[in-house]
Amino acid sequence: MFNKNHHKILGLAFVGIIYASCKVPAIVEKTANKNTPATYQGNSDTTNIAQMKWKEFFKDQYLSNLIDTALKNNQELNITLQEIEIARNEVRAKKGELLPSVGVKVGAGLEKVGRYTSQGAGDASTEIDKGKEMPEPLPDYLAGLYANWEVDVWHKLRNAKKSAYAKYLSSVEGKNFVTTALVAEIANSYYELLALDKQLEMVRQNIDLQNNAFNVVKIQKEAARTTELAVRKFEAEVLNSKSLEYDILQKITETENKINFLLGRYPQHVDRDKSGFDQDVPTNFKTGIPSQLLANRPDIKQAELGLLAAKLDVKVAKAQFYPSFGISAAFGFQAFNPSYLVKFPESMLYSIAGDVAAPLINRNAIKATYFTANAKQIQAVYQYERSILNGYIEVANQLSGISNLEKSYGLKSKQVEALNQSINISNDLFKSTRADYLEVLMTQRDALEAKLELIETKKQQLNAMVKIYQALGGGWN
């Protein structure tokens, strides 16, 4: 029996546990800076192309078909979907920890104790019926229910569940980010393929042009109007262009296979609209305002949710310093003979107990976990701020690139036009021996290089269109 002194001792011990466990080490917290510049280049219009679905943004039906296939079959995207499922199951697990755990136990055993022990000496005199002692060895049969429940006084389990849910939402945004990157990569590869087709067309046209000049110089050599050196120079130029043709064909194959890989399929021809490369590239995109990046870009939302989860993890780690309150209970039947299990209430057993546990001495492991959780929270703050800064800089770079590429394309177009005219002039002058063969060769070479550069600039314009859409957060919806 407990007397008043015993109760006082228990009360003092309980108060001591509470006091000691509530001494939590101090930490340095950091708040994320969400501020962004007010506008891009002074434009305050909130209309944003990131709100457009990718099927509305990309008009090319062949490109849409490729993206559709990739969103179903791409391995990286499917791996990310499994990450979402893993995170969802973690939420279920944390939710289950809030509820009591109940189990059933059925068992049978056999025990023989020494007769000259305290337990054996007592059992030897126990009678079941008159003149009948306890059996030896002693069987034991048990059937019952057991339950355990941790009372979530400090919201440790609730915060763990909220953290798991934030991580689940973060994984969803991670999938959206992968989707955005996948859509952009397919679009860029598609436009690269169209550019290579155009370059191949230009090279083949140039080969025809060079062959014509080669035939002319051979006739002139037979007429002693030029030398064998000129013939060999023209021949070398034709061979160089044919070599370039095969280089482009190899790049086409590699680019097609890159697209096939993104689509999760083995190498095959990629259908495309080659005339789509000649379309006019828009240069005035509705970019909205920078603060919209926080809502549109999946990587920024993912970082924000990661920060939320990290803050909750700090609270969970902090709760480890506080005492935990547990309740355990059992109810069942136990006897040494199965036939006695149905004897009620003699074979009935039950128990209920509450306990308080808290760390008192050597709490280094708990402190380390707490400080680690806080360091991860500060790390998450920097990651969030970096994702916002990175998003703004990406948009700013693309806006500048779009403007400069537009000017560059206009100048290169005039350059190509001038060189095309110079080719005709140089050919006419060469036929009338008023121009040297080197002038013809150099003019053809310069024209081909200018045409290839013009195609490359056009491809960069198309890529910039894709990148500004991606940078603003479009492509995942």
Automatic annotation (TrEMBL):
Coiled-coil regions listed in the entry: 67-94, 438-465
Membrane topology: Lipid-anchor
Residues that span the membrane, as ranges: none
Compartments where found: Cell membrane
GO cellular component: plasma membrane
The keyword Iron-sulfur is annotated on this UniProt entry: no
InterPro entries: MdtP/NodT-like, OMP_efflux
Pfam family membership, one: OEP
Protein name from the UniProt record: TolC family protein
